[in-house]
Amino acid sequence: MLLAIIILSSVMAISFSLATIMFIEVRTSGDLLKTEGALYAAGGVGEEAFFNIKRETCPQSGEGCPYTTNFSNNVKLLGNPVTSSTSTPIIQDKVVVNSPFGSSSQKTYDFCNISTQVGSGCGYGKVEITYLDTGSNNPIMVYLCEFDPDADYQGEVPCSNLDTSLGYWQNPGGTQLTENSNFLSLNLNTARQQVLIITNPSTSGDNVYFQIKTYDTDMVTPKGLPYVGKSAVDINAINSSVGRKIRVIVPNNSSSGSASAAVGGSQIFSSPTGGTPFTVPSYGTLTVKVWGAGGGGGADNGATPGSGSSGGQSNFNGSVIALGGGGGGNEGTAGGTGGSASGGDTNSTGFAGETAFFAVSTFYSGAGGNAAGIGGGAGGARKETVGVGFPGGTPGGGGGGGLAAAGQRHGSGGGGGGYSEKIYLPGQLVVGGNVNVVVGTGGNGYSSATGGGRGADGRVEITWTAP
Predict the structure, then answer these.
(1) HEC profile for 309-371?
(2) Which residues face 110 on adjacent strands?
(3) Integer Cα distance of 95 and 178 in angstroms
(4) Distance between CA 426 and CA 436 in Å, rounded?
(5) Is pTM, for the whole model, over 0.70?
(6) Residue 233 CA from chain centroid, whole number
(7) pLDDT: which is higher, 190 or 316
(8) What is the pLDDT of residue 12?
(9) What integer best gives the mean pLDDT of the chain?
(10) What does the pLDDT average to over 322-338?
(11) Cα angle value 422/141/225 (rounded, 5°)
(12) What's the angle, vertex CA 52, arms to CA 50 and CA 54, rounded to 5?
């Protein structure tokens, strides 16, 4: 009798357990079915928010607009959509490959909404940046620009130039983050305004993901960054007991209400071209930076010695010109000359390539010359072992010379490209007109088993401020 009672109790316990599992599974399946309706409703209202903000159909960037609140599938909104002025305190983002400083693909984060905080600090005490390990080997560069909004930085727009003498970089030269050195914490001056810039300057490899966390002036309380030039609308939808929330972020129009109103921007021409049109946008100031291409490195004194070829010139509008560096000499003759420049407010000559050195026990090929100007490419390094010379760095670095066996003469380095920079004021260029842009091709190193390295191509960078 006792055995029968124990068996019945066990069967009942198992039955109740199975029933509980089944109820949980049924509820989970029901929640999944309800999720689709909630997301559908939130997405539909998100499209309404996009239309309202871009068309400026109601005040306060979309808040207070007549949104759809009830739907035929028992879904409804939990209150009206709400406009958010700041992001969450923790942001995760990515910067794509080939995003050097000044490019349109660099990541830029404003700590102030300038239109509402003119002449005051941004109200942040600390920022932390973390490199997220997603398998990429590319490093990123982090630059924190911290400036006095009332100061004059030698006529430069704050945060637009990496020149450390201008005084607005908190970490001059930037800080490199990698998967092994992946964290940076910076304390902020609460009386100044800040802009955080993150770049991925590698020309190959993978995109890099990172995280930004920002804090209030007490450096303890998390505080999100403002949405500058855009609006964020939070939408909560519920289907029975299941709720879903989405955030729609929409670029704002200018105060004129035109969706095509001009803003600041940039464009980089880095591939060799004999002439590519650039359409002049509406601008306040437009800055052009031009690098000529690097010269190729020279060869050793083997069976086919020879000099590298010269790098090509780059120019903007045919008037802001940076010439390419000269080719490096062969068999220990002189390195290539640096390219000159003309037509800009600033014109600088590239560095000459190094002449190869030969002695009984010491010998090396010549290094390529560095391109002129801040941001110019480094020349290819000298070689001390047998082989083809190293290529020059982008933009405009000269190729290094090739090195033959010990006891022989070796190739000299190619010259670096010249650099020219010019700032155009309103009226000096025709808005909407086309300007021709030429980017020089890097000089080839002399081709042989121990020939010279190739010179780097030139570059033209164009940045402009809003009118």
Answers:
(1) CCCCCEEECCCEEECCCCCCCCCCCCCCCCCCEECCCEEECCCCCCCCEECCCCEECCCCCCC
(2) 195
(3) 13
(4) 19
(5) no
(6) 26
(7) 316
(8) 58
(9) 81
(10) 89
(11) 95
(12) 65
What is the rounded CA–CA span in Å between residue 368 and residue 365?
Answer: 10
CA atoms of 433 and 429, how far apart (whole Å):
8
Pair of tokens at residue 5: 């009672």
Phi, psi values for residue 187, rounded to 5°: -85, 145
CB 281 within 8 A of CB 464: yes
| Residue 160 binned pLDDT confidence (cut-offs 50, 70, 90) | confident
- Collapse the DSSP code of 332 into the 3-class scheme (helix H, G, I; strand E, B; otherwise coil) and give the result: coil
Q: What is the CA radius of gyration of the chain?
A: 30
Of the candidates 347, 328, 350, the one whose C-alpha atom is nearest the C-alpha of residue 339 is 350
Question: Strand 140-147 and strand 208-215: pairing?
Answer: unpaired
Amino acid letter, 126: K
Residue 357 phi, psi dihedral angles, 5° rounding? -120, 140
Residues 165, 423: Cα–Cα separation, whole Å? 19
Q: Is the pLDDT assigned to residue 388 strictly greater than 90?
A: no
Residue type, 16: F
Task: Please give the Cα distance from 119 to 108 (Å, whole number).
Answer: 21
Give the position of tokens 């209400």.
257
**pLDDT reported for residue 200:** 93
pLDDT of residue 413: 92
Residue 297: phi and psi, rounded to 5, are -80, 155
**Residue 309 banded pLDDT, cuts 50, 70, 90:** very high
Higher per-residue pLDDT: 328 or 65: 328
Best CA proximity match to 236, nearest among 88, 84, 61, 39: 39
- Vertex 286 angle, CA 280 and 434, to 5°: 20
Domains in the chain (CATH in brackets) are 34-84+232-260 (no CATH), 86-215 (2.60.120), 262-467 (no CATH)
Asked if the bond preceding 277 is cis, omega within 30° of 0, the reply is: no
